[in-house]
Amino acid sequence: MGEQDAGFRSTKQHMLRESKEYRSQTLMGGLSGFESPIGLDRRDRIRALRTGDIGFVHSWDINTSVDGPGTRMTVFMSGCPLRCQYCQNPDTWKMRDGKPVTLEAMIKKIDRYADLFKATNGGITFSGGESMMQAPFVSRVFRAAKEMGIHTCLDTSGFLNKDYTDEMIEDIDLCLLDVKSGDEETYRKVTGGVLQPTIDFGERLAKAGKKIWVRFVLVPGLTSDEENVENVAKICERFGDAVEHIDVLPFHQLGRPKWHELRIPYPLEDQKGPSQALRARVKEQFENHGFKVY
Ligand code: SF4
């Protein structure tokens, strides 16, 4: 089937990708087209991961209007330290479930689409899982992309802020930053992790003059509390002009079958998505803080 992989559509059902507001168009993708590095024993692989000579990839695709401007190659890295209750991709949680891809193979793949990216003002996006979990690989690919004149975008929760150096930040043009909740208690409930690294990463991006599209998943009764939304807005204010807009992503149940397939107890089994009225209220809250909201 060449580059096409008939199964890839079911491997990644990203919240935003399935959102009606975004007419995403996935052109091709999957896990095909990458040679796995051969002859690496476990120790070699760990070393190569640390240096960024290889990365573990869940899947990739070429899309429009989803993960940043223009036509983009989005690479979904394996591994995530968080355990969001509303995760649509629990199959990306374990790094070892991904496919090892060499830095050279990834750069070659990007180079192949370079003209398309430039013609559409698109580029490369790293998503996940948590893209920052493989910071050496991601940042080296970004450096190569910048040298080719290609736009770069990091889709992240910022949870691993400390793993991403100032030098690495230099090669990010745009960050899709998930601000999953506005206070520590709700953040922990929603993700199992802590909020502060997200704030720290957003502030570092802003200081470095980078652009941010904030993403906030709206789950009735979990993240929808008025005060929680206010606190998310206040966090976004700390990033100042760096924030170009906020995506309010309505919760949906498209990820449920994956939890079942993986036999992981799904905490939002009977959770409903937000009503139009709730969505309008949250949108207005962010707008009252001066943000453009999608
Ligand atoms: S950050 Fe949350 S939603 Fe994203 S992959 Fe990790 S657990 Fe899933």
TrEMBL record:
- Lineage, top-rank taxon, reads Bacteria
Q: Keywords for this entry? A: 4Fe-4S, Cytoplasm, Iron, Iron-sulfur, Lyase, Metal-binding, Oxidoreductase, Pyruvate, S-adenosyl-L-methionine
Q: What is this protein called?
A: Pyruvate formate-lyase-activating enzyme
Q: In the UniProt record, which is one GO cellular component term?
A: cytoplasm
Cofactor(s) required, per the database record: [4Fe-4S] cluster
Q: Which SMART domains match?
A: Elp3
Task: Tell me where in or outside the cell this protein is found.
Answer: Cytoplasm
Can you tell me which family this protein belongs to? Belongs to the organic radical-activating enzymes family.
Among InterPro entries, the record links this protein to:
Aldolase_TIM, Elp3/MiaA/NifB-like_rSAM, Organic_radical-activating, PFL1_activating, Radical_activat_CS, rSAM, rSAM_sf
The free-text function statement in the UniProt record for this protein reads: Activation of pyruvate formate-lyase under anaerobic conditions by generation of an organic free radical, using S-adenosylmethionine and reduced flavodoxin as cosubstrates to produce 5'-deoxy-adenosine.
The record describes how the cofactor is bound as: Binds 1 [4Fe-4S] cluster. The cluster is coordinated with 3 cysteines and an exchangeable S-adenosyl-L-methionine.
Residues forming the Radical SAM core domain are 66-292
Q: Which reaction does it catalyse?
A: glycyl-[formate C-acetyltransferase] + reduced [flavodoxin] + S-adenosyl-L-methionine = glycin-2-yl radical-[formate C-acetyltransferase] + semiquinone [flavodoxin] + 5'-deoxyadenosine + L-methionine + H(+)
Q: Which GO terms describe its molecular function?
A: 4 iron, 4 sulfur cluster binding; [formate-C-acetyltransferase]-activating enzyme activity; lyase activity; metal ion binding
- List the PROSITE patterns hit by this protein, alphabetically: RADICAL_ACTIVATING (PS01087), RADICAL_SAM (PS51918)
UniProt keyword Cell inner membrane present:
no
* EC number(s) from the headed UniProt entry: 1.97.1.4
